[in-house]
């Protein structure tokens, strides 16, 4: 097992472009499951490949257990990589695929056999050891790829989108299998995904990347409850948080006729323009259209023209634009606990829950607290 430390690690593919990985500093604890997440092209895979030694470092350092990995060849790093494509040898059986790295490392035949048998047991692959990749399902191949990493008993697992070739249902079940396996084995794991749900459900901590720069590293709960900027706020959470630019006057934010009172300390730090963030569950309905006793823009509630209703059975999401808002105004997303009778074209009045408003500086996007 091992600690991993990225110290201003940088990768620049060309002199003219911005670095793909831009001075990342990240301290990963022994046995931790750290997820790197962010949109396509943000530098996740490059970061992981630098750790595995598959990509050179143009600046900074990467330490494993305190040792600088500069000049250490990938095969000498004691890091096992699991790829999205699984990268299995098609002409070898599952057992041979798993044993391959051990054969190369001159591990004895008897020990190799034992380690493969152990991994096969953990991954429930015992019945499939003689099958070639072409004779297995995607999920089974994925488990063989995991097995190949496990048998090496490495210091660190590096996983690059290992679930993206699985269908949605299998992805969910495999997600918890991998997380459970990592807990049992206790091997430090760096896991790359662009799927924020995967990140939030699997990681002890989640590192959010944007344009090669680290935005925030935190527990899933902290990321959700205290996003450091509008990018993280919008990236984490599904459906996404509603972010609306608004004016601050006399300690109150004005959002399409809705007034949001701000905590005094926060109001003191806010400039004239802020971005108010409200998650779908941070609203409640105050009036149904059928019993509409309120006037629009009375200050405490927001009137929404319902544009879309998604009923998922146990909960519903209502998407609407503020009544009277200009064309192109932000859509507000409201979660309702139960099934809703609201329909497209209805008007619904919603109020933010007290204390659940996120506030960001409009110019920098940074959180104000
Ligand atoms: P995805 O989720 O789409 O796989 P990612 O976050 O893993 O994306 P990277 O693959 O790390 O992103 O790529 C980061 C940036 O570096 C991108 O802009 C990409 O185009 C660029 N890049 C990656 N590999 C190379 C390469 N070999 N040569 C030049 N540019 C590259």
From TrEMBL:
Residue ranges constituting the ABC transporter domain according to the UniProt record: 4-236
Listed SUPFAM superfamilies: MOP-like (SSF50331), P-loop containing nucleoside triphosphate hydrolases (SSF52540)
PANTHER family found in the cross-reference section: MALTODEXTRIN IMPORT ATP-BINDING PROTEIN MSMX, OSMOPROTECTIVE COMPOUNDS UPTAKE ATP-BINDING PROTEIN GGTA
Position of the signal peptide: none
GO MF annotation list: ATP binding
Alphabetical keyword list: ATP-binding, Nucleotide-binding, Transport
Entry protein name: Sn-glycerol-3-phosphate ABC transporter ATP-binding protein UgpC
